[in-house]
Amino acid sequence: MSYDTAKAQYAEWGVDADAAIEATLKIAISMHCWQGDDVVGFEKRSGSSGGGIQATGNHPGRARTPDELRADLEFAYSMIPGAHRLNLHAIYLDTDKTPDRDEIEYSHFAPWVDWAKAQGVGLDFNPTFFAHAKADDNLTLSHPDEGVRDFWIEHGKRSREIANQIGDELGSPCVNNIWVPDGYKDTPIDRMAARSRLELSLDKVIKEDQPKMRDAVESKLFGIGVEACTVGSHEFYMGYAIRRGIALCLDMGHFHPTENVADKLSSVALSVDEILLHVSRPMRWDSDHVILQNDDVLQIAQELVSADLLGRTYIGLDFFDATISRTAAWVIGVRNMQKALLRAFLMPLGSLRRAEESMDFTTRLTMTEEIKDLPFGAVWTELCARTERPAGMNLIGALDAYQASVAGRR
Ligand SMILES: C[C@H](O)[C@H](O)[C@@H](O)C(=O)CO
Ligand SMILES: [Mn+2]
After folding, report:
1. Which long-range contacts (CB under 8 A, 24 or more apart) does 201-204 make?
2. Residue with the nearest Cα to atom 8 of ligand 1?
3. Phi and psi, residue 280, nearest 5°
4. Any known ligand binding at 137?
5. Looking at the record, which segments are called Disordered (predicted)?
6. Ligand nearest to the CA of 320
7. 124 CB less than 6 Å from ligand 1?
8. Of 218, 235, 308, 301, which Cα lies nearest the Cα of 270?
9. What is the average pLDDT across 307-325?
10. Contact indicator for 221, 261 with CB cutoff of 8 Å
11. Amino acid 52: pLDDT
């Protein structure tokens, strides 16, 4: 079907397809560096991910150096419509030096900033509180040992300083997200002590004013090895973010599988100014599958649009699948997030709202089901054409060719 025909069909529902395309292209998505190398990073000090997170699979072509990762990222961005961001973790430093986590500084990440400037990509940052000998107890900022806590506090402070300088260099605030794996395998006696320690440590980490970055904190229901208690629970961080006036990160894999993260957005937005999303796909647990255009993701996008939250929500992705092409995983995931947003912008929200307000739930349901039959694919293809990005079979060909090139070389 031609775009003009599709556009006319949407117009019958009072929807402007051109405006939906433009709105979608304005949204920058923060693509996570760690999908590119299975959360290994470039430290010469440690091995596996740790912290109860795990990339599974051994697909050929994993990026082993910053240059390889940047080449993969450049390819991925060339397959994705619009301008986006890169979400860096502190273990992805690019330096010949071997600083420990409490020794990292901006210079270790400066090559990423030069690259980001050249590519027109924004940068976000994360301290890495896992995959380190001092995190082997599954306790970092809440560790009972003051020395261990101080080590991680220093890491957190330095990460904020780095994020601040990145934000300054790039002229766009750098979101610095704190996730700690802290918790207990078996039932603790003194949860309050651990949570009080975490709060005190976080206060020390975020004490300095760093105007070019934004603080976010990420909760989790449980992780492998900390099944009985996660110190940084949702309630803990929700309260903390409200009290300290910082952003709350909601990771779609960090709640009970029956919970709907889309439903949380409006509730949370009444209490915090800013939200960071880690869009992910949990399967039975926080399995970090590549995101789909499934109901969970579609509803997230719909809520962001209908509740007018896009201006104060940072959209980041968080998944890592090493059983498929890593570059394809990025491209599929970011494009799916964009497709979800485009679908949301293509909804006749005014009519739907009117039906709901007048308690006409029959019309509301009829409409939501009928609009599923509108020619969304033609609008997406047009968006790709306008941004000179491939769609359909052409995309598959490009992804395959790149994967073949890296699989052979690495
Ligand atoms: C690597 C990320 O920081 C990590 O995935 C974190 O955001 C998380 O979701 C841990 O489960
Ligand atoms: Mn996450």
Report:
1. 201/141, 201/142, 201/149, 201/152, 201/153, 201/156, 202/141, 202/156, 202/178, 202/240, 202/244, 203/244, 204/153, 204/156, 204/157
2. 179
3. -145, 175
4. no
5. 45-64
6. 1
7. no
8. 308
9. 97
10. no
11. 77
Ligand 1: centre distance to CA 130 (Å): 10
The rounded percent of the chain whose pLDDT value lies above 90 is 96
Check pLDDT > 80 for residue 49. no
- Give percent of the chain with pLDDT exceeding 70: 99
Give the pLDDT score at 118.
Answer: 98
Question: Quick one: average pLDDT of 352-380?
Answer: 98
From the CB of residue 349, how many other CB atoms can be counted at a distance below 10 Å?
15
When pLDDT is cut at 50, 70 and 90, the band that residue 44 belongs to is: confident
Distance of alpha carbon 6 from alpha carbon 13, whole angstroms: 11
Residue with tokens 């959209």: 315
Which residue has the CA at smallest separation from atom 6 of ligand 1? 179
Split at pLDDT 50, 70, 90, the class of 132 is very high
Which one of the ligands is nearest to 124 CA? 1
CA distance 187 to 228: 5
Q: What is the pLDDT of residue 409?
A: 81
Kindly give the distance from the C-alpha atom of residue 262 to the centroid of ligand 1, in angstroms, as a whole number.
19
Residue 16 assigned ligand-binding role: no
Task: Note whether ipTM > 0.90 here.
Answer: yes
| Cβ neighbours around 3 below 10 Å, total | 18
Instruction: Give nearest CA residue, ligand 1 atom 10.
Output: 53
CA of residue 126 to ligand 1 center, whole Å: 9
Does residue 78 carry a pLDDT above 80? yes
Distance of CA 9 from the midpoint of ligand 1 (Å): 41
The pair of structure tokens assigned to 41 is 């990073």
The ligand 1 atom at the shortest distance from the C-alpha of residue 52 is 11
Q: Is the pLDDT of residue 221 over 80?
A: yes
User: Does the annotation place 254 within a ligand binding site?
Assistant: yes
| Model pLDDT for residues 13-30, shown as the tens digit of each residue | 999 999 999 999 999 999
* 37 vs 63: CA distance, rounded Å: 5
Question: Which structural domains are found in the chain, ordered by start?
Answer: 27-349 (3.20.20.150)
